[in-house]
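Following the same procedure, sequence and fold were stored together, as reproduced here.

>
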Amino acid sequence: MLAVAGADAVCRPGHVIWPKQWQLKLPAVNFSEYERKPMSEHLSKQFDLELEHIRTRILQMGGLVESQVQAAIEAFSSGDLAAMQQIVEGDREVDACEVAIDEDCTLLIARRQPTARDLRLVMAVSRIVTDLERVGDKAAKIASMARNFHRGGSRRIPRLSDIQNCARLATEMLRSALDSLARMDVATARQVIGADKAIDASFNAILRQLITYMMEDPRTISEALDIVWIAKAIERVGDHASNIAENVIYVVSGDDVRHTGAARMKADQS
């Protein structure tokens, strides 16, 4: 599991300051193996250093959003209103990381003018950052809707075990997607994509239960809708984890499997 960052981390364009206890020890990846066009040894080394810097930052951002999602789900289960508020406010840190990494990618393109596989790598990183920011948004939404749910007073709907199951699947997918990114591991990325079906099935099971409660007792409608929004946000975390995995496949193999179904067919075959 990746180390995670919290609210003390500072992320702004051109700089990132992480407390020592959250600094990551990342597996070594040699980006030169992606067959870039020949360049001088000096420029090649500098380019690799800048890529490694961006890679470190995106994995730190991934650790941050993973911790936000886990904290939001725990706060929903425990009813900790203070933790929910902290998660909602912490979304600003994720947004700052997105802006900073996007600026790093833009400067890298402007300075180094990457081509072919190098450009593909930078563009994939930019898309992954967007997915991570949206995962952070979902964590904030879970916390916000959980706050509404717990402020509503008496509970008419019993605790749904499928919510915890869906949350467990989503966080495992996100963690595996980040691991596949850290190691540029296509096999793990395909497993992440294949796991999305289980989350969809879990969400549909939650929806069926809630519809039953609402039909039997209209007084549960408001409460049930809060749970629906929480469950949908959890399900979307899994979708964004799949997107990250698809981009890992794109970087390593050159196959753009978005919207084609190819990623899921490969996942089923592996």
